[in-house]
Amino acid sequence: MLNKERWENLELLKNRNELSVEGKNGIGFLLSGAVIWTIITIIFLQAIDISQKNIFMLFSTGLMFPLSVGISTLIKADWKFKDNPLGNLGLYLNLSQFIYFTIFFWGIIKSPEAAVMFFAIITGAHLFPYGWLYNAKPYYVMAPVISVAIMALGLYLDGENLWLIPLAVVILLILLIIWVYANYKSKI
After folding, report:
1. 159 is a domain residue
2. Residue 58 lies in a domain
3. Which residues have C-beta within 8 Å of that of residue 74, sequence separation ≥ 6?
4. How far is CA 17 from CA 12, 139, 173, in A?
């Protein structure tokens, strides 16, 4: 017979797997992230001042939530999780990214050319806890891969080729989406 702690662990795993399947592993949010980073790539391809690029990049993030809701609705992914006790955790994990924005704002003020790299690293790193939430290993692998790859790329780029950073984020997010989708399909 299973003890109480083991039953609770089984219930937690069941809740995480339900969250994973109902929310389709967060694919709606990842897809909208790929769209946002595509917009950021286009912004950084423009022949405008770096401070304007950074402002437009910051404004483009305002599309994230409505786009995520729209894409989630389109792919029939439930991101609200009213009946699942872990549902609010996803919201808190996403809101925690705002704490990291202090680094991004520092970059915009003190090192404008590095701001896109800071933002890309923050984006990659904030994905890590979703591995636990959705019980999906692709998040555990790709979060550090995105962060380290962007840092390495950022170390070797000059101000003229900064567009390669958001493009790399788009490519890495697409790889994550494919892997997370395969993980989701294995659970249903």
Report:
1. yes
2. yes
3. 28
4. 9, 15, 22
Number of domains in the chain: 1
Any long-range contacts for 11-17 (C-beta under 8 Å, 24+ apart)? 12/86, 13/135, 15/84, 15/85, 15/86, 16/86, 16/132, 16/133, 16/134, 16/135, 17/135, 17/187
| Total-model pTM | 0.88
The 10s digit of each residue's pLDDT in 65-123 is 899 889 988 988 876 656 656 666 777 777 777 788 888 889 899 999 999 999 999 99
Look up the domain containing 105 and give its range.
Answer: 10-179
